[in-house]
Amino acid sequence: MSKKTLIIGAGGVGNVVTFKCAMNSKTFGEITLASRTISKCDSIAKNIKEKLSISINTASIDADSVIQLTKLFNNIKPDIVINVALPYQDLTIMDACIESGIDYLDTANYEHPDTAKFEYKEQWARDKAFKEANIMGLLGSGFDPGVTNVFCAYAQKHYFDEVHTIDILDCNAGDHGYPFATNFNPEINLREVSANGRYWKSGEWIETKPMEIMQVWDYPEIGKKDSYLLYHEEMESLVKHIKGLKRIRFFMTFGESYLTHMRCLENVGMLGIKEVEHKGMKIAPMEFLSTLLPDPASLGARTKGKTNIGIYAKGIKDGKERTIYIYQVSDHEKCYEEVMSQAVSYTTGVPAMIGAKLILEEKWKRDGVFNMEEFDPDPFMKELMVQGLPWKIIKKT
Ligand code: NDP
To answer: By three-state DSSP, how is residue 271 classified?
Structure first.
């Protein structure tokens, strides 16, 4: 029987997921894209019709409301819901999936709008309800989290008896020509980058000041870049699932202009998430800043350069020390040519589509809530090769 797929969130990532699902329509069947602003869904549907001659349905939804979501799910009866709205909507969409008995996938872990802190606790707590409803929830099926978790699982399965250290390296050397803009949702991006850094060593989390630790890494096809230690959500699940792990860190590159703007904005309070009184109105400075900054979906046409995201793992194989580096390079302009989005949205949207494809094809299928590294990495790694994200391995020792 033909499948039905519902995608929620018509932003930069939603655009890529919808394009890629349409390009794999044999698996995804009838596709509906729903978001808060239906005109954004209609515009994506129009582009897909023009480029691929495939029709997709559109709908308007407030994904903060479980009642509205349940009504929409019961109306469409999708086999899977792909959540690429914002992390604030994860729990409502998961609850509506439990209510309607539908498989769920997202790309970012839950965050409360009033606290800049993200963790899996509340999503993992829904494992029992997912099991009772005989449905699957796949968490963090983007690039990082997502492909980086699968790279770790692949390293563990094929290259190591024990993985001792992992460094996740995320480099975006793209240039969009603006002095300051973010490549995905500005509010989510700035909350992540301005928070304290954190890494895990010998069973403990060690906290750092924002951008306190910098290391220069040499990224193939890009070159040497200053990379800053950040806390990133995939580390929370990887420390549970990778055997023998002693340390895990996450590094991301930032240009000088980005960092200078961010420091200034922070110094004047523009990154605040608590509401302030302004001329009799209440506004959250970060939300207002988000309104002023370029829409990430609009960066596609003007971004040039490459991204390189990967993992650098050290450990033991057959009693000997081994180091490997698995990475993927994407080109912003090539991504735009294919699906009208820059590489940051592309590298998130393609893995979201692949995760959903593996669920629909029952290659990854279990009842409950899971992180990516809990499944066999091989079918995912194979799909990356053919769906636009080819990867490479360098074996150092
Ligand atoms: P955008 O801001 O471009 O898009 C988000 C979309 O969600 C918008 O279209 C917005 O609608 C919609 N939306 C927001 N709130 C609601 C709501 N209450 N109901 C319905 N729709 C809503 O973000 P991105 O596309 O850049 O990012 C999407 C997700 O991908 C985020 O969760 C982000 O954290 C994640 N991400 C994950 C990465 C990874 O590698 N794992 C990397 C990059 C992003 P409207 O426009 O009407 O407000």
So the answer is: coil
